[in-house]
Amino acid sequence: MKKILMTLAAVLCCMMTLPMLTSCISKDNPAPVTDYKPFPYDSEIDNSVRPGDDFYRYALGQWLNSSDPAPSTFVQIQNELSVIFNNMLNTSNDPVMVTLRSQADQTLNDDSKNKALLSERLQMLEQVTTSDQLNTAFSNLHSLGYSPLFRFIPYANDGKQGINIVTAGGMSQEVSVYAMRKDKASLDSVITTCCSYLDALGFSPERIAQITQHAIEIEGREMDGFNYFYEMARHPQPIHVTRRTSANEDEEKLNAVWKLMRLTDQELKEGVLYVGSAVMETLVKDFADVTQNPSNVEVFRDYMIYNVLAQDLPFVPSINKQANRTDMLSSALRYSRYYKYRLLTESYGKDNICKQQCQDIMEQMRSNFIRRINNLDWMSDATKVEARKKAEAMKFFIGYPNQWNEKLTPVVDGDGLLATVTQLRQNAVQTISSVRGKNTDELGWDLWAGMAQFTTDNAFYLSTVNALVILPAWITKPRFDNDLSEAVAYAVTTTFGHEFCHGFDAEGAKFDENGNYRNWWAPADQAAFEAKQQMMIDLFNQLEVYPGLMADGKKTLVENMADYGGQELALECYKQRLTSKGFKGAQFDTQIKKFFLSFAHLWKGEEELDKSLLKYYYENDNHSANHNRVNGMMRLQDDWYRLYDVKPTDKLYVAPKDRVKIW
Question: What's the rounded mean pLDDT across residues 588-597?
């Protein structure tokens, strides 16, 4: 009996301790962790290519060699967004869209009101023969919301204060694309086609030829001003604000122009004006000096005729036979970017935009970056303090605002579609005017959603406000897809880190936490930083855009530095995620390989299939070619060498001492 009792006690003891033992075993020896979610990016691997010779081709070789390659993610997203946009235009129950659709349908049946209004405005311009009449016409067009010659773009300077930058005005979306590409021949062709419609409005062939010639002249000059602003927005430089210091004759002439554009004496005195480039400044001065050169009255008058015609043609289908309902609605919303952003967010569905998830990852990146700063052996404590301040102060604007500003809902009750579009233009001018002198932190999404495009598949950072914006198209399917392996989403977050690190690249590091152009670097740290930049330049100079054309490491330095920082931060975040889920050893390594393959797929682009496109981007873009964005970053990752057995004899191999380490 005693034996039986002792046995039972032993069994009970074992039963009681079994959960504790199981728990201890589970903690010390975790069960194998597996990534069960699909990973689609191993199907295009070309095993005939050594990863160490060309990782981009190794990862994407099957696609690159295909006679009928599937569209890249960039193209897929643009196609999807186009469908969503068109569907929103034609089915949204939003009151603004219901009104615009009703007026568009009426216009297709009878556009006589629109045609009469357009003709009235053109005839008002056609009567201009003196400088005083030109100025009056210029002012009248501004009051109607047009941007003849010039327009103001809200920008930030002097501690995030909103100022007005004068840049090219009134360019249609089609013309702005050609301007951005510096494609003068296509630009001239579009202008010529547009002016030909003046025939249906009673203009003689001789006048049409004259208007076309003058429009081509001015729009060509504006193209340079447009490009200057475009580059400045991507790579901010310190802004010199024109300040009113004296009442000399030239200044008074310029001030007279700005007053026609509704700037006040106080705004002029405070220096809320910046002219976008030397070309734009000359254009402004030429307009201000029309009294000295009467022939310029005709040139600027004719350009304004073209400008009004180009903006109004989409709403006169009896003249513009290509006009249709969708195009009219799209053209109308062009003048209400904030509301367009709101409508698309609601149509796309907030649940499809991974806002909170990306916000959390961005905060993780911020913490990791600050820790990395603290651990740097090449930066002094004084400079570290400044770097931390900037990282801590950086604002993140991700996806869409938590609350829409109802005050920015446009008024749409005009007598006919063109009259309503005029209201939208006037609302747009008022919205831009409301930014003047205000702190951009307070404006927040009122500023960003009014400047950016929901359908732009991108993210950006502006040094002058120390703010990062991630647009919705970048954080939705099929790119940011939580149904796939997490390696895919974390590879996408390299772009988050990329934009974050623009605040600390060769240009961004010249601005402080408030967006002011200020040198916060200790001299020795600055020298060390520049030495690392030179290492980056040298490494990219070794790569080819295509056989016979070497990359330009200096030109692409800023973007390469951001790519480097972005990959470092994203990979670290992914490793932390894997560790928290229990991945170890070979399983951990498999996930890191998936991350590298996903990074290559992130930069799968159609230009890689077209040598002429590669050359175009080489000449006009400060980013490295896609294959170099991938191969160049792989060369700097120690994990890549280990996981893919990269040897000194491989083409992409870089000795450990030459693998630049910045952050």
Answer: 98
Task: Report residue 301 CA to chain centroid gap.
Answer: 34
Q: Decide: 54 and 651 in contact? Cβ < 8 Å.
A: yes
Mean pLDDT of 38-67: 97
What pLDDT, on a 0 to 100 scale, did the predictor assign at position 229? 63
Identity at 287, one-letter amino acid code: F
∠ CA 333-334-335 to the nearest 5 degrees?
A: 85
β-strands 459-462, 467-470 pairing? antiparallel
Residue 342 per-residue DSSP state: H
* Beta strands 150-157 and 459-462, pairing class: unpaired
CB 53 within 8 A of CB 46: no
CA distances from 575 to 487, 491, 584, 592 (A): 10, 12, 10, 8
Dist. CA 547–CA 465, nearest whole Å: 41
Distance CA 398, CA 534 (A): 33
Identify how many contiguous H helices and E strands the chain contains and give both numbers.
Answer: 28, 8
- Label residue 326 by pLDDT band (50, 70, 90): very high
Total residue length of the chain: 663
Centre a 10 Å sphere on the Cβ of residue 485 and count the other Cβ atoms it contains. 22
Edge-first strand order for the sheet with 467-470 is: 395-398, 467-470, 459-462
Q: Using an 8 Å Cβ cutoff, are 555 and 622 in contact?
A: yes
Main-chain dihedrals φ then ψ at residue 322, nearest 5 degrees: -85, -10
Tell me how crowded residue 352 is: count the other CB atoms within 10 A of its CB: 13
Q: What is the pTM of this model?
A: 0.88
Task: Taking residues 22-41, report their average pLDDT.
Answer: 64
Tokens coding 134: 């030109």
